[in-house]
Amino acid sequence: MSEKTVKIGLLGAGTVGLQVARILREQNRELSARAGAKLVLSGVAVRDTGKVRPGIDSALLTSDIDRVIDNADLVIELMGGLEPARTAMLRALQHGKTVVTGNKAVLATHGPELNVAADTHDASLYFEAAVAGAVPVVYGLRESLAGDRINQVLGIVNGTTNYILDQMSTQGWSYEQALAKAQELGFAEAEPSADVEGHDAAAKCAILASLAYHTRVSISDVPTKGITEITPADIAQAREAGYVVKLLAKAERVMVNGQEQIALGVEPTLVPQTHPLAGINGPYNAIVLETEFAGRLMFYGAGAGGAPTASAVLSDVVAGAGHIANGGHAPRESTYAALPISDPGLVQTRLQLRLEVSQQIGALSQVLQACLDQGVSVASVRQPLVESGADQATLFISTHSASRQQLDAILAVLAKSPLVHRIASVLSVEQ
Ligand code: NAP
Predict the structure, then answer these.
(1) What is the domain-level CATH number for residue 63?
(2) Is residue 380 pLDDT above 70, yes or no?
(3) What tens digit of pLDDT does each residue of 133-144 get?
(4) Strand blocks (E) in 34-190
(5) Can the peptide bond before residue 84 be classed as cis, meaning omega within 30 degrees of 0?
(6) Whose CA is nearest to atom 31 of ligand 1?
(7) Where is the ACT domain (predicted)?
(8) Residue 3 pLDDT greater than 80, yes or no
(9) What is the rounded average pLDDT of the residues 383-405?
(10) Is 165 left (phi over 0), alpha (psi -120 to 50) or beta?
(11) In this structure, what CATH number is given to the domain that contains residue 420?
(12) Domain range spanning residue 377?
């Protein structure tokens, strides 16, 4: 084995960091052989140095992040959040070090700044663990598919929301019941908003879109809607109509007025039961790529968890340490295409509306007229049987493809109509 040594500084020893330290210790011979250099853990930064960290030499623990960075060749950032993660990663990159991170939030917010620092200082930035945990989709897009052209990225990239929707579907639970179960099992945080409101998925969507379309995409470019308003009625209706409800992250190459653009979004979506993403259950992640030459590819696996995420982190460590020992660096940020992001109002989609309407004659025709006035054609109308004497009925309306602007205009008209008591749900429909 090579005599070279690569010193590894670990920032964060929580769920993922502890597993990284464990596997690095237990598999050290093999990982070092693959990297072509002896991998040595040289320091571990944590907030609380008094906490017991099984398997980590207490002499390595410190709360001094800079000391760990300065004493390492390769820095693994697993603290999470924007700060001090951003500052720490910048410091390491500006000193020409290799950085490996699983932090989607910092990449989707400060990615350009970090990539420029890596480029300027001949450093490397790796982030396989930032999207879909163990699933090697970052490598797939950055390297394996560098010879292809991506037309669509469609993914279930948040295991928490997938688990909740799955439990609502299989157990008939409300959103609140399913969330409570997810929290009990450790699939959801006590403060679940980043997951259930779609922000975590939006950060991953931005990272995937940047890689797929060679364009800078930030989390603020991704229109985002979470799953908090999904009800058992939506799920039951979806099933009857041959769909399942999934929180999908979508990044698509589209043509608008003869110009290529990227259409982005994270939202609960009706997915046909025959679609490959419909069968992704529990806390798993899956990403389907539609490519020009390779056709359809699907990446599937554990999207979170200490050991699965550590697997992705360590694949980056082996690659990064190999470059430190033998020359070369991580692939540079690729932004040459610089495609514009589509105006969300012009993005084409199909919607399914669930409306609570008055039983008076004319309610249905008013709804259909609102669609007609916007030039939106209706694909199907369904009204479950109403008890005689009831003063309210439920209407399910599916539209054909139309722009968000047209669909929003329909919703605005319906919201004002005295015959429409409530717009109970609005869901996108995947073709
Ligand atoms: P975690 O369990 O909360 O651990 C965070 C670690 O960072 C803790 O050891 C904490 O120290 C340390 N830390 C936080 N702030 C610090 C500071 N200011 N100074 C020094 N140390 C600090 O987080 P995690 O679940 O392992 O996640 C780590 C990263 O991986 C995040 O970016 C996350 O998004 C990403 N990720 C996680 C998963 C997953 O399944 N957990 C999956 C994919 C990606 P103390 O222990 O002393 O509090």
Answers:
(1) 3.40.50.720
(2) yes
(3) 999 999 999 999
(4) 38-45, 61-62, 74-77, 98-101, 124-126, 150-156
(5) yes
(6) 80
(7) 352-428
(8) no
(9) 90
(10) alpha
(11) 3.30.70.260
(12) 344-429
CB of 65 sitting under 6 A from ligand 1? yes
Residue 14 CB–ligand 1 contact under 6 Å: yes
Which 3 state secondary structure label does DSSP give 207?
helix
- How many domains are contained in the chain? 3
Is residue 45 within 6 Å of ligand 1 at its C-beta?
yes
> 49 CA to middle of ligand 1, Å?
14
Q: At residue 158, does pLDDT exceed 70?
A: yes
Are 164 and 170 a contacting pair, CB within 8 Å? no
Report yes or no on 112 lying in a domain. Answer: yes
Smallest CA separation from ligand 1 atom 36, residue: 102
Å from CA of 115 to ligand 1 middle: 22
Same domain, residue pair 144 and 224: yes
Secondary element (H or E) of residue 331: none
* Residue of 97, 204, 246, 250 marked catalytic: 204
Task: Enumerate the β-bridge partners of residue 40.
Answer: 7
Radius of gyration, alpha carbons of the chain: 24
Q: Do 285 and 204 share a structural domain?
A: yes
Smallest CA separation from ligand 1 atom 48, residue? 47
Name the nearest CA neighbour of 129 among 304, 342, 318, 363. 304
What pLDDT, on the 0 to 100 scale, is given for residue 2? 46
CA 43, CA 272: separation in Å to the nearest integer? 49
- Tell me the per-residue pLDDT of 243-268, one tens digit each, with 9 for 90 and over: 999 999 999 999 998 999 999 999 99
Q: Is the pTM of this model over 0.85?
A: yes
For 26-75, write each residue's pLDDT tens digit: 999 999 999 999 999 999 999 999 999 999 999 999 999 999 999 999 99
Which helix (H) or strand (E) element contains residue 256? strand 243-256
Q: Please check whether residue 337 lies inside any domain of the structure.
A: no
pLDDT digits (tens, 9 = 90+) for 105-150: 999 999 999 999 999 999 999 999 999 999 999 999 999 999 999 9
Based on the fold, state whether residues 128 and 178 are members of the same structural domain.
Answer: no
CA distance 363 to 367: 6
> How many Å lie between the centroid of ligand 1 and the Cα of residue 282?
23
Contact 224, 266 (CB under 8 A): yes
Q: Is 339 part of any domain?
A: no
Residue 209 CB less than 6 A away from ligand 1: no
Task: Give me 401's structure tokens.
Answer: 């493809």
Work out the angle between the directed axes of helices 232-240 and 159-171 (0-180°, nearest 10): 70
Which residues does the annotation place in the binding site?
104, 189
- Establish if 392 belongs to a structural domain: yes
Q: Give dist(CA 280, CA 275) in Å, integer.
A: 10
